[in-house]
Write a structure and sequence with these properties.
Distance between the termini: 17 Å
Largest sheet: 7 strands, mixed
Structural class: alpha/beta
Strand order of the largest sheet: 3-4-2-1-5-6-7
Radius of gyration: 20 Å
Number of helices: 10
Order of helices and strands: EHEEEHEHEHEEEEHEHEHEEEHEHH
Strand content: 15-25%
Length: about 325
């Protein structure tokens, strides 16, 4: 099982004929992704050779979807054109748009996110590495060869930390890894992924990677307490970050005590989530939790959700 992306997903690449689009189309194909074509209005009707495969190029997302049945679009489109490209994908009825581009103006992101929601399109990103369901499909720029299929779900603001946790836990493997991006306005949130992993029967534990700035992790903690029965292990990047500076992502800025790594750690630990202070320590916490098979109610299970589960029948929480 997986969330959002499976071997059945038909992936379209907006911006496939550009240098980055072509490079990562090759990598997605090598990972087994069913890439069905690209979009470039200036090259409509052409085909592009991608490692011996003839990829059709369409003039619009609508034409591509009508011809191929694409249900995922990965966007490698320059920032100035990203708003129009996402809105085009939403208007064409694409259910999932993965926006890799960084540097998109916040106002543009607000506009296309709102438009996509109205059209029923889920957006992942912008400024994200995409998502991967190991052994099935890869939509974005995540390396496909650093892990394998398994029972851990991963949702992360950081691309680099996504890769590191995937590698450190490669022997255990992952159901799906989702890089949601670190911009101030993103489409899919920690909470969205927590809900999806909670509903996925093959995901036994969730790793949540956050970072300084904003209150996304605090809101995720509240959601975990009320709705999540599966163990959650977390890492928050930025324990040594100075106040008042952006750190890597546009959304990672700290003002006073709000948004600090320690404040987020405290909020998560208050609802039973175990939080590592380094990526390696976080991986060890995952191993420790998965090794615990005695059936006790373990750290990482939201207290309110756990109590509800007991009231609903006392089923053992894994």
């Amino acid at each position: 099982m997986a969330i959002y992306l499976t071997k059945e997903s038909k992936v379209l690449v907006q911006g496939m004929t550009g240098a980055e689009g072509m490079r990562h189309t090759r990598r997605m194909l090598a990972a087994g992704t069913d890439v069905v074509g690209g979009v470039n209005p200036r090259k409509a009707g052409q085909t592009v050779d991608v490692d011996g495969r003839a990829m059709p190029v369409f003039g619009s997302v609508h034409d591509a979807r009508e011809t191929t049945g694409a249900d995922v679009s990965v966007l490698f489109v320059p920032p100035a054109f990203s708003k129009a490209a996402v809105m085009e994908a939403a208007d064409a009825g694409i259910p999932l748009a993965v926006v890799i581009t960084e540097g998109i103006p916040v106002h543009d992101a607000v506009v296309f996110q709102a438009h996509a929601r109205r059209r029923g399109t889920r957006v992942i990103g912008p400024n994200c590495p995409g998502l991967i369901t190991p052994g099935q499909s890869n939509a974005g720029i995540i390396p496909a060869d650093i892990t394998r299929p398994g029972r851990v779900g991963l949702v992360s603001k950081s691309g680099t930390l996504t890769y590191q946790l995937m590698y450190e836990l490669r022997d255990i493997g992952f159901s799906t890894c989702v890089g949601i991006g670190g911009d101030p306005v993103v489409g899919t949130t920690h909470i969205d992924c927590l809900a999806a992993f909670e509903a996925d029967p093959e995901t036994e534990l969730v790793v949540l990677i956050g970072e300084i700035g904003g209150d996304a992790e605090e809101r995720a903690a509240t959601y975990i307490a009320e709705h999540v029965t599966k163990p959650v292990v977390a890492y928050v990047a930025g324990f040594t970050a100075p106040e008042g500076r952006t750190m890597g992502h546009a959304g990672a800025i700290v003002s006073g005590s709000s948004g600090t790594a320690r404040a987020k750690k405290a909020a998560l630990e208050a609802v039973g989530v175990r939080v590592g202070e380094t990526p390696s320590a976080t991986a060890r916490l995952v191993r420790d939790r998965l090794a615990s098979t005695d059936g006790r109610l373990a750290p990482g299970i939201g207290r309110l959700a756990a109590e509800k589960a007991r009231q609903d029948g006392g089923a053992r929480l894994r």
